[in-house]
Design brief:
Strand order of the largest sheet: 1-4
Largest sheet: 2 strands, parallel
Number of domains: 2
Shape: elongated
Order of helices and strands: HEEEEEEHHH
Helix content: 40-55%
Structural class: alpha+beta
Radius of gyration: 21 Å
Length: 140
């Protein structure tokens, strides 16, 4: 279990079910205000293989969890195929929007070239490169 309110890790479906059951039991026993909303709990099988996780269903206490193909976590889109392509497209789109928002500054004759470079480095690049250190490296 990484963070009780965000993610439960398990290598196989049975481990995830065990971890979730343990979380439910612990939240009831400790009486510290932790409640698990089983109705809004979702799961995702992450694999590079297309057919991974298609036959899995997770059930705890007669409740079945919904499966998702992707979701945003800490500002990054995670996909079931462990692909980073959509995240790169999203980052470039955000960078383009950011560039468009400061276009008046970048095209102004009142600002020096060095100031425009600083705007690019300090405003646009961080938007595009956010989280890129965690992108998985692949042959592609």
């Amino acid at each position: 279990m990484a963070y009780a309110d965000d993610i439960i890790l398990g290598g196989i479906v049975r481990n995830i079910e065990k971890n979730m059951e343990a979380l439910l039991v612990a939240s009831e026993e400790m009486e510290i205000g932790i409640e698990v909303n089983v109705g809004s709990t979702k799961y995702m099988v992450m694999s590079r293989y297309q057919n991974a996780g298609r036959s899995h269903s997770i059930k705890i206490d007669n409740s079945s969890f919904g499966k998702v193909e992707d979701f945003r976590y800490l500002g990054t889109t995670l996909t079931s195929q462990n692909s980073i392509q959509e995240e790169i497209k999203s980052r470039l789109k955000s960078g383009n929007a950011c560039c468009h928002s400061v276009q008046n500054l970048l095209s102004s004759r009142l600002l020096s070239k060095n100031t425009k470079i600083k705007i690019h480095r300090n405003i646009i690049l961080p938007v595009v490169l956010y989280g890129c250190g965690t992108f998985p490296l692949t042959l592609r």
